[in-house]
Amino acid sequence: VTQTVQPRQVCTHFEKSSTQIGVIIVVDWAFKAKYANQIQSVRCYTQRHGYDLHVLSGKEYDVCDQYRKDFFFKKHCTVAEFLKSKPDKYVAAVIDADVVAAALGRGLERWANHDADIQLYERCLLPEIMAGNYMVRNTPFAREFLQRWASYCHKMPLGYSSSDNGAIHLVTMETVRVQGYDKCRALYNNL
Q1: Of 14, 138, 145, 9, which is closest to residue 83 (Cα–Cα)?
Q2: Does the pLDDT at position 141 exceed 70?
Q3: What is the rounded average pLDDT for all residues in the chain?
Q4: pTM for the full predicted model
Q5: Which residue of 52, 100, 155, 186 shows the fewest CB atoms closer than 10 Å?
Q6: What one-character-per-residue DSSP string does 8-61 give?
Q7: What are phi and psi of 24, to 5 degrees?
């Protein structure tokens, strides 16, 4: 007996936005080749939704060369500089090259239409902010936030600090002026 199972619709319908939306991937040539299939899935996703796709190498802006010792910090500088070329309020989903576009029918409008200039998210298994993927609106505040985050490349402690993933916690605390920042900064500096 063969039974046909109809797929269940699990995605919510999202309204199209008048906001210009793009997806940015900053990746060096070696990882671009390694993650070619993942990048292609994102290309299909952006085409389906009418979003811009920008695959950047991190070598586009001389000002970001100061972060060449750590590609991840250079990524945030590159995004900040790239946004200067886009219209005010342009919204970008910044993602790592290893991201697979799996929910092709689900758009980014829910997040693009949010008022926040920067949207970060917490890792599902651990209570930590993720550094690899985020939404950013082209505003002076957002570009300054990204540059401040990149500047932590020069403030990393000698011990293991998890690169930009460790620094995002301090930048976020500093930005929202959370009580306890000084203690966390001291712990970070002593890694």
Answers
A1: 138
A2: yes
A3: 90
A4: 0.88
A5: 186
A6: P--SPP----SS-EEEEEE--HHHHHHTHHHHHHHHHHHHHHT-EEEEE-S-S-
A7: -120, 130
| 71 and 81 Cβ atoms separated by less than 8 Å | no
Q: What 3-state class would DSSP assign to 116?
A: coil
State the residue for tokens 């203690």: 183
* CB 112 within 8 Å of CB 17: yes
Name the strand (E) or helix (H) holding 95: strand 91-95
**Cα R_g (the chain), whole angstroms:** 18
Phi-psi region of 90 (alpha: psi -120 to 50; beta: other; left: phi over 0): beta
C-beta separation of 166 from 149 below 8 A? no
Contact 119, 135 (CB under 8 A): yes
What are the pLDDT digits (tens) for 147-158?
A: 999 999 999 999
Residue-level length of the chain:
191
